[in-house]
Write a structure and sequence with these properties.
Layout (H helix, E strand, L loop, with lengths): L28 H6 L7 E4 L4 E4 L4 E4 L4 E4 L11 E2 L4 E2 L7 H5 L6 H5 L8 H4 L5 H12 L2 H10 L11 H21 L6 H4 L4 H13 L2
Antiparallel strand pairs: 1-4, 2-3, 5-6
Helix pairs in contact: 6-9
Amino acid sequence: MESGKKIRSCVRCGKCCERGGPALHSEDRIFLQKGTLKPIHLFTLRAGELAFDPLEERLLELSHDMIKVKSRDGSSSCTFYDADQHACGIYENRPLECRALKCWDTKDVEDLFMQDLLSRLDLCPKDSAVAGLISAYERSFSPGRIYGLISETVSEEGTQQSNPAIEQMISTDAAFRRKVVETMGLKETELEFFFGRPVVSIIEHIRTLMDHR
């Protein structure tokens, strides 16, 4: 590429794919139906969780589920990105955001932000056992409740104190997830799709944010 020449097409540099996987929209349901995307490839940020808004460069509280494609372990790269080949492993069946993204003109993908997002209950039969478990989990481990307990541990000086209720919630969540694997036949690698990140991971994340304020 000539020096100073503006990019007007994809040169397969991989930078977009190295920044993480896309969020899924209703249009992407077909890829789960076809089996291109499976629960093991996905994780859910739940309503009430904090997520980064790339448009305003700030944290926002999600009003509903945001299902995203996982990153490879130990990196921020999308799980489907092949770094050696600079290629997408599911290119012909890539999600809507991937098809819309042009690094030289991000308007199309920006217009998709928080619009018509796919939710877990969109993908589970309404009266299924899994749908019931998801609803029960939200009642017991809602992000709002987690954040409320964390706020109670912060002293007036800004230091973090221990809270037995948090430790109990972490323990109960871990036991719930073990029980689901044992009794429902779900894989551990699918749990972050069906129930979101473990309570302990959410707490670690928010405490890290608080430490860097």
